[in-house]
Structure formats: structure tokens, C-alpha cells
């Protein structure tokens, strides 16, 4: 009996040796760093990359995540438990089990070198309820473990510096990193809040969504970002002129509408060549030669571009912008300033000087001025039938700001008439029937009847 048991052990050892050493030579990467809640963890063996997935020692990562780990020798399966989540990963299997749910892996767990078990870092971390980000520039895997973070941030934790206009979370142990300040931040809904790190005076802010610990979980790529309701938020971005819906993972749920927009604009994309910009189709064919010093994506069939032939000096270096169609034909001359907006629903807000004063007005797709001689300090595209306009104050950029007049914003309808007698210190476009305004220094929300709803 002892002889049989000894022979069985020898066979198991030999099989494991073949499994461990029969694979190709792996390339470990000592430059990859793994952080959990901003603290670097030291793994006893280096990670390696397989099929663009970071593989790490199983026991080291699970212990760092405070998960209990078991090893099922008979089935060659790792079992990890954290809080009420249990996952099991079997060597060389592309299926991971999470609380009886099967999840397909891009890369299976495997035994390497000295029979150490390696698991795909992102897959197992996310399965245990963590958020994972990859910093390509510094080769850092950043894991956020909600269960081990301090108290969550809420809207009451937001402060504002009146000079710089940056909102920030004033928790004492907040690390001083890129997530420490925001130029704008909305209330939390469905665990996410729209936030921007764009300069307060930028003519266009970009928004993403942070979780309740201040980390961007959806990138700041949107020009407008609404609150989440039942897992859906309405956003706008540079590559599509109309609002569309995303889920809490940042995935577009209006793909058909996006496809229609791309087709309407001949599926053209901006490309750069030696400092000049032109347009290619999705197959990479050049449709419009690179001849512009700046170029926006097409929207509503037209694109805002800057001519390389306009030679400007002083503050005039910001002019020389016009609009081209999808054939590359100039349909609106190079006579406007860079703050001009893309077209949406047949109109755009453009900027030029009137008696040496910067003013904004609306034009149609033929370049004709809309709403008579009515001009504004600044203006946005129409959204849900209304457009934000600034009627007093200074252009929202340090270059033009003298802070000698209080800003005043309101809304116009598509006839160019003021839609309300209300005037605000600041106002944003309507998204999903509501808009953010500031009045008497206090941030509020209004509905499309201009009634406060918060």
C-alpha cells in the first residue's frame, strides 16, 4: 500500500512538472506596478503580459485584496472568497465561476515556472468587486477596493475656490493627485456624478463620471453629461451632434442613432499630417486633404476648420475659422473666431467682433444670420429646444475677462426670443428635461418651465 501511495505521489509530481515546465518561456515585466487604493503592493514574483492581459501570482494578489484563498488540488482550482463573493478559477480553463455564474476569461489561469499559479489580474479583481484602471504611460495597474476605502464622498463634501473655480473634495486624507479637484461636479445618482477637470474659463468643458471615491470610472470625453436615472444617462460629445444615452459602464446604448449620424457625415474622421488636418473615411482613404491648421469632427453635415492661409497677429490669431461640407467645399467663409460651435439642428453659434467688441450670434447652414441683429456675449447650441446665452459680463476665458461686469445668463427659444425673464449667474444646457444654473451664488437645478426642482 505504501509503495502504491509513493508511486501515486511521484506521478502527480511528474504531471505537475510537465504542466509547469512544458510551456513556452514567459517574459516577466518588472516595470509593471500594482497599486491598491493608492498603495503599491509588493508581489513575490513579477507580473507578465499575455494577450494584452496582466497576469499576477494568485496568492499575492488575493491576499492583498483581503480575500480568503483555497486550493482544490484534485480539480486544479483556485477558490477565493471576499465578503459575500466567491470565485473559482481552474488552471487552463477560460471559464471563471462567480457565485455560480460563469464568466468567460480572455486569458486562463496557468501554472508557470516553479509551479506558481498566475491569474488574470483585471478579471479576478473586478469579479471581487474592485475597479481596475491601467496607466499605459507608467505601466501601473490601479485597483480601487471599495470595501477598504474611507467614507464615501457626497455632495456636501464639495467646496469651491471662488478665484480658480475648482471644486474639490475636502477629505483630510485625500491624496494630492489628478483626482483631487474638479472645475464642476454634479450630484451623485446611481453611485456616479458627472465631473469636469477642464479650466473654469474654457469655452468647452469635458465631463466624465466619478464614483463616490472621486475616481473617474467613465472618461471625461463628454461636452454635456446628465445624471444617471435607472442606470442610464444622457450625454453629448464632439463626435456626435445630438444627445445620446450611455449606461453606467460608459457604453453607448444608442448605437443605431450613432451609426445614422456617421453615415450622414460620410463616416469621415479627422487625421493629422505634418501639423495639418484633413479627413479620412473609415477605410483610411483620404477624402479631404490635410490643409487646415485646426479641424473639428463633422456635425450636421458641416465641420468647423481653421484655414492655414489666414495670417493673424495679436488677439486676431484666434480667427480664420469657417465651415466645410463633406466634399471639402467651403460653405461658410473663414471669418469667425475659434469659440464658434459645431452645427446642430441646422444652427451654430459663431463669434466675431462688432465695433471692436467680441459678440456671438447664430447662423444657419448657409451662413445667414439668424434672429435679426440680436447678438450675445456668448451662446451654446440648442438642446431640447432651448439655448443658453450670456447677455452680460465677459467671455468665459482669461484672455478676454476683465471681471468688471457681473455675468448674466438666460435661455432663448428657436425663434431667438427669450424663453424666460429669469437671469442667472451661470447656466448650462438642458439634458433630459433639466439644467443646472447658479443664482445668488447657489447651484440649483431647473426644469424646462424654469422652475426649481431641487
UniProtKB/TrEMBL annotation:
InterPro entries: Cu_amine_oxidase-like_N, Mao_N_sf, WG_beta_rep. It holds the Pfam family Cu_amine_oxidN1. It comes from the Bacteria. Residues 35-141 form the Copper amine oxidase-like N-terminal domain. PANTHER family: DUF3298 DOMAIN-CONTAINING PROTEIN, GLR2918 PROTEIN. This is Copper amine oxidase-like domain-containing protein.
